[in-house]
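Example record for the data management plan.
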Amino acid sequence: MNATIRQLLDTADLLIEDCGGPATTGPVTGGPATAGAGASVPAPPTVLTATVASRCRGAAFALRAALESAVAARLSAHGAPRTIREGSMRAALLWLRGCAEAGTARRAKAAWSQLCLGCHYHQYEIGPTEGQVRAWRSEVTAIVALLAH
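Corresponding structural encoding:
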């Protein structure tokens, strides 16, 4: 597993771990504070919030990118043509059947398809749940490990 894939998985973990409520990065107050005899203290950072659905969708994006990177690395290791590695993911997943075990290629395609659905926003659909994203995280980790062999 290369560093990029590891960072993407870590990013997904950070987004998933806060799926219980709004995330904050600093105190709620936002104005400059004064201390003592007119000495000014810098203003605290502003509060950043994200909805649970936004964090879950962001984690799905990170997981999909990690899976795509793992597939591209496997294809590169097996000498796939550049047009396959850098073309559409559907073509890469078809080519993966010749570079990995059939079960692994099927799992990669299924996971990628589910992640694409989780990443795609529709006004009339609820985004992916925390449970779905955690299951996708486990599946992507397993597939990345299989593709690394």
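Summary line stored alongside the record: Confidence is low (pLDDT under 50) at residues 21-35.
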